[in-house]
Amino acid sequence: MLDEMRIRDLGVIDDAVVELAPGFTAVTGETGAGKTMVVTSLGLLLGGRADPGLVRRGADRAVVEGRIGLPPGSPVAARALEAGAELDDGALLISRTVSAEGRSRAHVGGRAVPVGLLAELGEDLIAVHGQTDQQRLLRPSRQRGALDRYAGEAVAGPLTRYRAVYRTLREVSATLEELTTRARERAQEADLLRFGLEEVAAAEPVAGEDTELSAEAERLGHADALSSAATQAHAALAGDPTEPDSVDAGTLLAQARRALDGVRGHDERLAALADRLNEVGYLLTDVAQDLAGYADDLDADPARLAAVEDRRAVLAQLLRKYGGPAHTHGQGTLAEVLEWAETSSARLLELDGDDERIDELGARETALRAELAELAAEVSAARQAAAGRFAEAVSAELAELAMPHARVTFALSRVDDLAGIELDGRTVAYGSHGVDEVEVLLAPHPGASPRPIAKGASGGELSRVMLAVEVVFAGADPVPTYLFDEVDAGVGGKAAVEIGRRLAKLAESAQVVVVTHLPQVAAFADRHLVVEKTSDGTVTRSGVKVLNDEERVRELSRMLAGLEDSELGRAHAEELLAAARAPRGR
Questions:
Q1: 89-107 burial, b if ≥16 CB within 10 A, otherwise e?
Q2: Quick one: which of 515, 520, 564, 568 has its CA closest to 544?
Q3: Which residue ranges run through the membrane (predicted)?
Q4: Residue 374 has pLDDT above 90, yes or no
């Protein structure tokens, strides 16, 4: 239950404390903006959108604080404690700050929390019903939502299962449509992949083959120069048999070794150098032999060179076509070609299996549509059952609101659609909500034909119908506090008295806060708050005050006659209060 709310620098309110209590609290006042700020403040505490335009002119931020009493074991208390909040003698302190720059902060139990937590807690704390809710309820989609909400789990359960099947059906249908409508493009894609795979298979590339062929082509292309260089190097190392007088590296090295061997015993350092010359001699002999073998093995084979170049040309074509992103810059590799072939083979198998997949998806779509039809029928039956109870409850409320002969009914209908689902021998349109179109009908008096409430009700009748709907909802909602924001607009006279009486009856089991402009409604309140406006000529401010009995008479007189001290108005106000307090009034 909401015990108290403090508002600072919000709209026209500079600093006001709204003291609430159990039972029925009425909020009135001359300034509509001030009363709106009371409702807006509560909306901010419940996680509503923060608008920097709400900050009072000249202030740097607006602050709304609330104190909410919670019963032991409350799920709201458990959720707040889970978020790190602390309770103050069983009460939860909530605050919301909105800066002039648009920044918003929320605190619960002294702990900074996301604004979303306020909305989460608010769902179990306060139900807000206002004129905007009335306008939304005029739309058939909202009326269907209202019926589903009233029906509770009876509709929510099968509707949840329905929506799960509905989502699956949409996915299957979308895939099936893509496969059938894009069959031509997919066939072309398959042909291109098949051609490419055949081209790669015919070439039989091996990873790294292109690198090896490049090296071989380089060697074969310069075979004569390589052979001549190897022969010259061998002759320089080992000597040329055709020139006996030539001096080679082996002969010179042998001379150097002989010169050192004769004196190596006299100096260890020189002996070490002689050993190193021996090692050089062994190495020189090995190199000379390898050069001789290299020159003998090297063969300038034009036929082999031509074969290598042809193979390289084939591989280069594969690299250009299938070598991956790098091949556009001449840097593709055969490994990329082989990877493309592997990926494309899997894709081709997928494309070639489209016909089989289309058959499978078609069968699944048929089964899903049949399952969806069964669930839709279950949802419709639950709605139909709830519609009767809802209509009876609203009609009973209307009898309490000076419309004793009015009857409310719910019309559930379906729309034929050849692309829909089969249900009860018809092919009907369907959506995420099911197959039902729901509309609230009103027969205001006996003999009148039921008509949609948007067309068949006057302004006052519409307000009472909507208030009856809200009261029915309030009776079903497990929240301790209800706020009604001028839901009595367009009503007056006896009907206004009955509205006040009905709200007072509701307040016997819950806390009810009503922002109203009707004295007949305010008279039934247990507690009366007034929003007062003052101005110093430059700045307009508003505050909220709890009225005592005398002040309440003056306020009701103002609301009735426009004059606070009118004798006739005061007499009427006192009579109205006496009637509201009489046993028959409550």
A1: eebbbbbbbbebeeebbbb
A2: 515
A3: none
A4: yes
